[in-house]
Amino acid sequence: MNRHTYKNHHSHWLEKSIAFIVHLGFLLNLRRFVMLFLPFFKLQSRVKNIVYLSWLVDIDQVRSRYPESVKLCEKQNKTIFTILTYQHEHFGFSFLGWFRKLMPSPKQSNWRFYIDPIQQEKTVIFEQVVVDQLLYVLSGRLASDAMPAQFARPFEHLFKDQKIHTNFKIDQQYQLQSSVQIDAEKQLSEAWQTLFSSWDDAVRYLVDQDHAWVEWVDQPEKLSQGDIEMPFDFSQIQAAQVLDIHCPLLNEWGVNENEVFAFVVPELDFYVKNEYSLK
Questions:
Q1: Cα(25)–Cα(172) distance, rounded to whole angstroms?
Q2: What is the DSSP string of the chain?
Q3: Is 80 exceeded by the pLDDT of residue 279?
Q4: Is pLDDT at 247 greater than 90 in this prediction?
């Protein structure tokens, strides 16, 4: 089963309907045909409390998860897996202007690997996308191949007393519980020092990404690319200490959950500029 297949674990009639609708092949193909002739409407949001959690993974454990055409970034037989979780503020079409304030503010978590820059620079590929509002699950899946979001509720992502607590679950594989505390000390562990010369270099690499690849839900051998823009003020990025972490997917890859590199971006503007299929 494709990892982006909608995981409906609830008996609510609305979710059952969504699970049925988003996998109708003729709707997916009709949308792809129509989008060949329509312009992409830019999306915009202000996002805050962005927690980055990253691990080094033996590349042999995950290389086969993606089509052979996809080349993951590899350094000393390791690749990087990142979960970033954040709170949107009024995520919607840019052309709405002031009226975008009427749009909802979902929480979102992106699970991703990094593409070898020789294949394409500043590019990630999504392992999973999670949001806490069904509106964005349905609209994302029906209108896009680059936003096959899973629904998780409850979805906690709370900032209090310089700590950020996150907790959500899709299934036994895809779940995350974490608590991080803002920390003044910016340093890399010994393992990460073999890949990057400094804390700043590591952070810049992890956040400075302009493109996201996603496998098609119905044809995982095909990919779509979303072009994004996130103007970072690198001086505002904060080191973080992980107080508690639980992510079962990491155990499948033989990764120690506690060997995590964490930092926090307080807030920034977020844009989705374009989407198209990759040939």
A1: 28
A2: --TTS-------HHHHHHHHHTT-HHHHHHHHHHHTTS----EEEEEEEEEEEEEEEEHHHHGGGS-TT--B--BTTEEEEEEEEEEEEEEEEGGGGGGGGGS---EEEEEEEEB-TTT-SSEEEEEEEEES-HHHHHHHHHH-SS--PEE-SS-EEEEETTEEEEEEESSSSSEEEEEEEEES-----HHHHTT-SSHHHHHHHHH---EEEEE-SS-TTSEEEEEEE----GGG-EEEEEEEEE-HHHHHTT--TTS-EEEEEEEEEEEEEEEEEE-
A3: no
A4: yes
- This prediction has a pTM of 0.95
Alpha-carbon distance of 5 to 1, in angstroms, equals 7
Angle between the N-to-C axes of helices 13-21 and 134-143, in degrees from 0 to 180, rounded to the nearest 10: 10
pLDDT per position as a tens digit, 87-103: 999 999 999 998 999 99
Q: CB within 8 A of 229, min separation 6: which ones?
A: 210, 270, 271, 273
First CA to last CA across the chain, in angstroms?
Answer: 23
Bridge partners of residue 84, in order along the sequence: 52, 110
Residue-level pLDDT at 11? 61
The angle subtended at Cα 109 by Cα 8 and Cα 149, nearest 5°, is 35
Length reported for the chain: 279
pLDDT of residue 72: 97
Tokens standing for 250?
A: 């990491």
Could you tell me if 256 and 202 are in contact, meaning their C-beta atoms sit under 8 angstroms apart? no
pLDDT, the chain, mean: 92
Tokens for 273, please give them: 């500029």
**What integer is the mean pLDDT of 22-35?**
82
Q: Which residue has the tokens 């129509």?
A: 34
